[in-house]
Amino acid sequence: MSTQKASRPSGAKDDPSAAGSGRRPTLMDVARRAGVSRATASLVIRDAAGPSAESRERVRQAAADLGYRPDLAAQLLRRRNSRLIGVMFSAQEPFHADLIESVYAATEEVGYDVVLSAVVPSRGERRAVEALITSRCEAIVLIGAREACTTDFGVQVPVVEIGRPPNETVFDAVHTADDEGARLAVDHLVSLGHHDIVHVDGGERPGAAERRAGYLDAMRRHGLGGRARVVPGDYTELSGFEAARTLLSAGPLPTAVVAGNDQCAIGLLIELRHAGVDVPGRVSIVGYDDIRSARLAHIDLTTVRQDAEQMARLAVQAAVERLDNGLDGETREFSLAPQLVVRGSTGPTR
Amino acid sequence: MSTQKASRPSGAKDDPSAAGSGRRPTLMDVARRAGVSRATASLVIRDAAGPSAESRERVRQAAADLGYRPDLAAQLLRRRNSRLIGVMFSAQEPFHADLIESVYAATEEVGYDVVLSAVVPSRGERRAVEALITSRCEAIVLIGAREACTTDFGVQVPVVEIGRPPNETVFDAVHTADDEGARLAVDHLVSLGHHDIVHVDGGERPGAAERRAGYLDAMRRHGLGGRARVVPGDYTELSGFEAARTLLSAGPLPTAVVAGNDQCAIGLLIELRHAGVDVPGRVSIVGYDDIRSARLAHIDLTTVRQDAEQMARLAVQAAVERLDNGLDGETREFSLAPQLVVRGSTGPTR
DNA sequence: CACTCCTTTTAGATCGATCTAAGTACCATG
DNA sequence: CATGGTACTTAGATCGATCTAAAAGGAGTG
To answer: Least CB-CB distance to B120: which of A8, A17, A104?
Structure first.
């Protein structure tokens, strides 16, 4: 199965920065080399006030010579605050990747670092959060948590949830007004002349219930309550495929579909086109999230945009403020306005 | 833009596990409560030999009562070995997500923990690796590294690369024999009667050069060297779309395409079908990686499978062995055999 | 010269765990 | 009763940083 062959010797061997001992250099080594005390060296490394220009220079030089890198464990241990924010996310979700990107940016701005903890099939939300607590994170951001797993063990740190609707969480929360988003989608389709609008929902996934409610509400308000129809699904491409097959096999096609999220919408789109259905000519499709691939030229999905950057920024801000002002006090909910992005997967009815 | 409303008070307030002080409980607290010394408590928590059954019980109980959680920073600082393996990956790559899932499993088996560090546009490979070093990781696994960024700063820990071909790395490496994989793809297509086989390559991405070489070699061996044709691309869906447009606009379509990876293949597939081209009737498509969505019912992509689980396991093993046996010694390369997975995107020529 | 004030430096305690080496009990054995 | 062994337990050093409080070195002032 696997072949294995030996080759060049290790490149990390003749490293000039290694201080002889092979041991990684500590602040003590730097201080000694610079001819100052550990305390002074520490101040210089942290860019704190105190040391003279001359000391600064010498310590900097010594640190560079030795290839010194502060030991995070030691810093964490000693510092009152770890300046770490833990982030739980699902490895397989593209929208989470977008959020993470923005979380890195947002935490950097406020002077914090990020610790990631992925949820994968073999590693549930609980394990993921425990890992974050053990890592001494000062605050935790949960992206798309499905279980309220954090309520039942003593989390002593502020928690902010991204993506879960307000009434489902006891923590600070940032989310997009998903009901409003679904309404936007329906309004858009109705304005294009559609009446037969189906919703492929997201089952139990975070936000799905709200999107469903928004869809039903909007249909009702347009006098289409009787024609509302919800096809079960989840947030995966696969469920989009399956929904497409359901629609194709059961009676006449609707003229438009509001999908639970973009991945589902993409699955729908691919499968419908594969079956020879013109999109948007025969069926219009609206997604939700505006993930990267929705923007790609020839998926070109009309979708309800969630502003990942803004969500990440607000979540980080909320966490930091709670750190500054204490855990007590009302939980806060930030509800962002969704934004309809009209692209090529929707069009007027014939 | 954002609305904010106050609501229920924080749920983390009346937590019974908080030991009054609000401070997170330490081993000292546990020991005191159990009426033993810190040392004994430590032994119990670590499941080490020594303490009597009675002590064990009392410490366990005390720890549970207090909601004690060991402080990773303190453990890391004191322990000779941190038992951490750092993993660099790209947030947006689905195949990386598959690998991470398996890396978690593999590290757990050997008693290590994982520290993730994502590469995103605002946070290059160098930053990502620096974060891992600062975190005291004993070894580093680089998934799909593009720069040899780790050679130039003094990395004193073993590094294993996943996905980069052997001649491009000075570290231990695990990869799939990509040239062989491309050959498998071509052989498969030729056996179906195809002669006009185009390759959409991956540019500078890890493994792309090998796949290209394997494609060219296989074409030559089948006497099709003169008909070989490489369309530039990268590993994204977008490049698949663009390649499709290139193919559609420039002369007669080939009868088959070997894509640089699955995402590219999926982009091709969608766009060709969108343009009314029957896949696999008119054009057959082979991908590379076998990512999750390739398996989905109606993408149903014929592809060259990389065994993510095996790759992760080998990488982790290689790292651990180097930790046990020292950094010196020949670098090792594990070259996994790729495996052709025939699904519905390829068929015989007409 | 004695005094304060300011800048710069530093010794030593500390964070919360692990690890070493020594201590205590208790029992059996010569 | 001394001796050795076994089973547990623990005090204290230690990891590598930060932080506090005090010391050291001028410089200015009456």
So the answer is: A104
CATH class of A178-307: alpha beta
In chain B, residues with a C-beta closer than 8 Å to the C-beta of A238 are 296-297
> Architecture of domain A83-176+308-336 in CATH?
3-Layer(aba) Sandwich (3.40)
Cβ-based neighbours of B129, under 8 Å, separated by 6 or more: B86, B88, B117, B140, B142, B149, B150, B155
How far is residue A24's CA from residue A26's CA, in Å, rounded to a whole number? 7
CA-CA-CA-CA torsion for B340, B343, B346, B350, nearest 10 degrees? 130
Pick out the nucleotide with least CA–C1' distance to B77: D15
Protein residues bordering strand C (Cβ below 7 A): A 36-40, 43, 50-52, 54-55, 74, 77-78; B 23-24, 26-28, 38-39, 42, 45-46, 68-71, 74-75, 77-80
pLDDT tens sequence for chain A (350 residues)? 444 444 333 333 333 333 344 678 999 999 999 999 999 999 999 999 889 999 999 999 999 999 898 998 999 999 878 889 999 999 988 899 999 999 999 999 888 999 999 999 889 998 899 889 888 888 999 998 887 655 555 567 889 999 887 766 778 899 999 999 999 999 999 999 999 999 999 998 888 999 999 999 999 999 999 999 999 999 988 889 889 999 999 889 999 999 999 999 998 998 898 788 999 999 999 999 999 888 876 789 999 999 999 999 999 999 998 887 776 778 889 999 999 999 999 999 98
Q: Is the dihedral of CA B25, B27, B29, B31 positive or negative?
A: positive
Q: Considering all nucleic acid strands, name the nucleotide whose C1' atom is nearest to the C-alpha of residue A79.
A: D18
- Find, in chain A, the residue whose alpha carbon is nearest to that of B123: A104
